[in-house]
Amino acid sequence: MPASSHFRSVHLRRSVLSVPAINSRALEKVHGLNCDAVIFDLEDSVAPEKKAEARDNLNRFFAETPLAGREAVIRINALSSDFGAQDMETVLALRPQAVLLPKVDSPDDILAVSDLLDENDAPESLRIWAMVETPRAILNIAAIAETGRTEGPRLDCFVVGLNDLRKETGVLPLPGRTYLVPWLMQVVLAARAYGLDVIDSVCNDFRDLDAYDGECGQGRAMGFDGKMLIHPAQIDAANRHFGPAEAAIAEAEAIIAAFADPAAAGLGVVNLDGRMVERLHLEEAERLMQKTRLIAERKAAR
């Protein structure tokens, strides 16, 4: 299957909040939050002796008050760990929208979980997200992304994890993420080459909202679809930065109208207020308007 952005389904993933599955109070609060997706974390935020309790919490949550209108994602421990197999049993039982794999290093990590899901008759709607947080992941990022375009693909989304990447490389957490930008752009490029969404890393200091706001703006300028969050206070800025701006909506509407004109039938390029606009811009305009409609539906449902 050829790689193309045309294959990308439209999702709202502006704000992706990570919630420790061990924190019952935090689980209760997610229903009232305006984030687009929730990562229910069984991995880094849960101590080894608390893993079983965290899985029990998720079982109760999904049975009693399942998340409505937003993507539910469960981050498991690595399959090679002492907890990975039981985590996958939980995923197969609860059937969230996606399973998030930690510390993916190579395509084999994706394919192993995809095969496991297929062998257990998991529905196609149960997708795979991958944490990109190791040096090997950066080196292999194009090959990992390509697994999303193999037969029976499940890989939908990359989530960058800079905390682990910094730890393993020794890169300091400097303002502006200067020495990390080349790696971040590699991840964005690979995601776009194979039609995946890509989520920017967390900003650790949730109290410094000015610095966080700047990091959201940087992530949007770099091409990310949204940001992984660790605190509800970060949701509004992520939704604002990664959502369609009014000027972009107006431009998208103008592009769609220009190509809908009968005079543009069969044309690959049209003149829009003195600018040459190609059909590839029409595809992007249509995607943006789909996201705009999803946002409007979300607001109406709240």
Report what the structure shows.
The chain is globular. An eight-stranded parallel beta barrel has the order 1-2-3-4-5-6-7-8, surrounded by four helices. A two-stranded antiparallel sheet has the order 9-10. By secondary structure, it is α/β, with parallel strands linked by helices. It starts with 14 loop residues before the first strand and ends with a helix. 45% of the residues lie in helices and 16% in strands. Helix 1 links the parallel strand 1 (15-20) and strand 2 (37-41).
Task: Tell me the strand order in the biggest sheet.
Answer: 1-2-3-4-5-6-7-8
Counted by DSSP, the helix tally is 12
Average residue pLDDT? 92
Distance between the termini: 39 Å
Number of strands: 10
Name the quaternary structure: single chain
Order of helices and strands: EHEHEHEHEHHEHHEHEHHEEH
Query: Any idea what the radius of gyration is?
Result: 20 Å
Query: Would you identify the regions where 5 or more consecutive residues have pLDDT less than 50?
Result: 1-6
Biggest pleated sheet: 8 strands, parallel, barrel
Percent in strands: 15-25%
The coarse overall form would be globular
Instruction: Report the helical percentage.
Output: 40-55%
Write a concise synopsis of the structure shown.
The protein is α/β, with parallel strands linked by helices and 302 residues long. The protein has twelve helices and ten strands.
Notable characteristics:
12 helices, single chain, alpha/beta, 45% helix, two-stranded antiparallel sheet, 8-stranded parallel beta barrel, 10 strands, 302 residues, globular
Give the arrangement of secondary structure elements.
Layout: E1 15-20, H1 24-29, E2 37-41, H2 51-64, E3 71-75, H3 84-94, E4 98-101, H4 107-119, E5 127-132, H5 135-139, H6 141-146, E6 155-160, H7 162-169, H8 181-193, E7 197-200, H9 209-222, E8 226-229, H10 235-242, H11 246-260, E9 269-272, E10 275-278, H12 279-301
Parallel strand pairs: 1-2, 1-8, 2-3, 3-4, 4-5, 5-6, 6-7, 7-8
Antiparallel strand pairs: 9-10
